[in-house]
């Protein structure tokens, strides 16, 4: 179970202001390419699950992770989702990006689960989006500040994975209020927004 605080920033100005405030705590910036898949018979989506390939690009050693996410729930700015992830060879990932049908033959524990538990015997691509993620070590937690690039617009979000989400959310909200950072609780996952085809109002 992945438990994350998710807070949305209203615009690029708030995003830039936050990056500036957090700059002393910066660890790394990731360039992610996220792409999603379902079974050819919608076996995953019909049971509130999705398969994701995430590529880490613009780095010395490109990486790729395959991830099964299921039963996502967001409430009061806290996301809970069942997640199973493993690393795969990026060249295999890119081959599956070109031809989703190749996923069926990838030697992967996660894909084995997808075939066995969901009965997927073929795959179709759903598309995806890119994210620039700035990562910070701040007050004993890891903050991830995302700039999400959809075809229909950009979204700005702050995430923090933690087993004490309410406590961490309070810390982040206090920090935002003290520094005049506008924010709201995220109501939808990035994937749900992608599938809706428009930014939340």
UniProtKB/TrEMBL annotation:
GO molecular function per UniProt = pyrophosphatase activity
InterPro entries membership: CYTH-like_dom_sf (IPR033469), CYTH_domain (IPR023577)
- Residue span(s) of domain CYTH: 1-198
Query: Matching Pfam families, A to Z?
Result: CYTH
Cross-referenced PROSITE patterns: CYTH
Q: What is this protein called?
A: Triphosphate tunel metalloenzyme 3-like
Q: Give the organism the record lists.
A: Olea europaea subsp. europaea
């Amino acid at each position: 179970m992945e438990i994350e605080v998710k807070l949305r920033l209203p615009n690029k100005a708030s995003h830039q202001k936050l990056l500036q405030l957090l700059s002393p705590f910066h660890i790394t910036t990731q360039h992610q390419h996220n792409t999603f898949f379902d079974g050819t018979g919608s076996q995953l989506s019909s049971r509130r699950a999705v398969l994701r390939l995430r590529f880490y690009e613009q780095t010395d050693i490109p990486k790729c992770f395959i991830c099964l996410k299921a039963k996502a729930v967001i409430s009061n700015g806290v996301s809970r989702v069942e997640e199973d992830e493993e690393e795969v060879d990026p060249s295999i990932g890119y081959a599956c990006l070109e031809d989703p049908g190749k996923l069926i033959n990838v030697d992967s524990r996660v894909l084995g689960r997808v075939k066995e538990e969901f009965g997927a015997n073929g795959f179709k691509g759903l598309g995806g989006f890119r994210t620039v993620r700035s990562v910070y070590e701040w007050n004993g937690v890891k903050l991830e500040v995302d700039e999400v690039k959809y075809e229909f617009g950009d979204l700005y979000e702050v995430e923090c994975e933690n087993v004490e989400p309410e406590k961490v959310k309070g810390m982040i909200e206090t920090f935002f209020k003290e520094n005049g950072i506008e924010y709201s609780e995220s109501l939808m996952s990035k994937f749900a927004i992608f599938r809706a085809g428009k930014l939340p109002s």
